[in-house]
Amino acid sequence: MQKTRLDTARIRAARRVINPVFLDTPLYRCEALEPGLGCTVSIKLETANPVRSFKGRGTELVASLLAGNGSQAAVCASAGNLGQALAWSGRGRGLDVTVVASRFATRAKLDRIRALRATLELVDGDHELARERAAAIARYEGIRLVEDSLDIETCEGAATIGLELVDRAPSFDTVLVALGGGALATGVGHVVKAMAPEVEVICVQPLGAPAMTYSWRERRVVTTESTDTIADGVAGRHPIPAVLDDLLLVTDDAVLVREASIIAGMRMLLDHAGLIVEPSAALGIAAILEAPDRFAGRHVVTIVCGSNVDMGTYHRLLDVAPGHDLDNLS
User: Fold this and answer.
1) What's phi and psi for 308, nearest 5 deg?
2) In the chain, which residues have pLDDT < 70?
3) Reduced to 3 states, what is the DSSP secondary structure of residue 57?
4) Cβ distance 63 to 89 under 8 Å?
5) Contacts of 316 (CB under 8 A, 6+ apart)
6) H/E element holding 262?
7) Contact 265, 291 (CB under 8 A)
8) What is the chain's Cα-based Rg?
9) What DSSP character marks residue 201?
10) pLDDT tens for residues 192-229?
11) Are 160 and 226 in contact (CB under 8 A)?
12) Which of 328, 243, 232, 320 is CA-nearest to residue 281?
């Protein structure tokens, strides 16, 4: 494998820094999903932790590094999950964390950022405007700007998921990874291709937020003017060149899925796995639903990467009566 920005030895060392609450997450075959998908399906569950997403693995590395260097503050732009994770990791290390987010971000994510005592600034625009504002704050206040996917710690933190897959999983053929900024895909892809190169690594992105997928296909940065997807956690418009370079080296394909398939994936994860997930976490299931022949007979691992949902929106998307299915899971 050609060299990426990531380093496998550093990724292994990262496990000694990351709070164990984020490590060794459940990995299991979900047979109940298989009749509807036509393949063997295993779930890597990254929601059973204090911030309900995989992002804590990376922010633990970032916050540890900052605290070790004597830093007292940091700022990031976030659709919600990174901000919540940085707030959690920073709070434990005495860091003042500022999170810039879109005013239209998922309310539950914003509420949890506030609950973790981070300073939350909202902008009247999308995630790209939040990134610009966070960079301006970092320059003005002279503090660290944490940039998801560009900062190598966010990628190598996510890459510890890959270690757990190749170290513990039974034989599998394919890994499906949600694609947004690229930290999860480059991290997991790096480890899988280094240690189990025969496994296919497929990135999945919504059709309504296709910038990174278009960039992967054309092997150059392609930006879009807007996004239109319920999967807010992966709705970027401006891929980072260095991240794309890594992604091209460690992934085998990038596919786009429709909104209806994402919702159907969320519904399947609720009905057959008992999991309430945010749209980004259902992208892997959506990919199988849209191309069942491609995955027939394979053993597929899908990374369920987040469960920070606004329950009102969740009910509307899945057309579930409040107080019915969701409140009576067993």
Assistant:
1) -90, 95
2) 1, 169-170, 320-330
3) helix
4) yes
5) none
6) helix 259-273
7) no
8) 18
9) E
10) 999 999 999 999 999 999 999 999 999 999 999 999 99
11) no
12) 232
